[in-house]
Specification:
The chain is an alpha/beta fold. The chain has helices at residues 14-23, 80-92, 133-136; strands at 6-11, 28-35, 38-44, 53-58, 72-76, 96-103, 108-114, 120-125. It folds into 2 domains: 6-58, 2,3-Dihydroxybiphenyl 1,2-Dioxygenase, domain 1 (Roll), CATH 3.10.180; 72-136, Roll (2,3-Dihydroxybiphenyl 1,2-Dioxygenase, domain 1), CATH 3.10.180.10. Strands 1-4-3-2 form a 4-stranded mixed sheet, with helices on one face. A 4-stranded mixed sheet has the order 5-8-7-6, with helices on one face.
């Protein structure tokens, strides 16, 4: 059976993407190389370096998502307070897209922010994945 190991994303400004994913997502660089005059950076959550990474490559990137396109990367947080803290930081930095909101199971409590290329990144608590999964499970 196949195992999902990575997601590769082309970004317009690699250093801005690295800063964003470090600051908001707690990711760290696990591999940084330059080949054929192109830099490629692998980032992962601490402790997950051998299970799932995001690969960032500088290039054209994509146009920012429309406000009605809810495609996103999802990160679970340990509490509603942690979601609120990320939302406050994003608001201060001008990248908050969706303020914190609570929705019925399985959505939970979440907010959304835009990365430097305009893609949505969601931070949640209480979904059936990650921290808080047991809190809201109606079963």
């Amino acid at each position: 059976m196949p195992i999902l190991t990575h997601l590769a994303i082309q970004v317009r400004d690699l250093d801005r993407a690295i800063t964003f994913y470090r600051e908001f997502c707690g990711m760290k660089i696990v591999h940084d190389r330059g080949e054929f005059s192109k830099r490629v950076v692998w980032m992962a959550e601490p402790g997950k370096e051998k299970t799932f990474i995001m690969v960032f490559m500088e290039g054209q990137g994509k146009p920012p998502q429309s406000d009605h396109d809810y495609s996103h990367l999802g990160f679970a947080l340990p509490s509603k307070a942690a979601v609120d803290a990320i939302a406050r930081l994003a608001e201060a930095k001008g990248c908050l897209a969706w303020p914190p909101v609570e929705e019925a199971y399985p959505v939970g409590y979440y907010c959304g922010i835009r990365d430097p290329d305009g893609a949505f990144v969601e931070f949640s608590f209480g979904q059936p994945l990650g921290p808080g999964a047991e809190v809201m499970d109606p079963a």
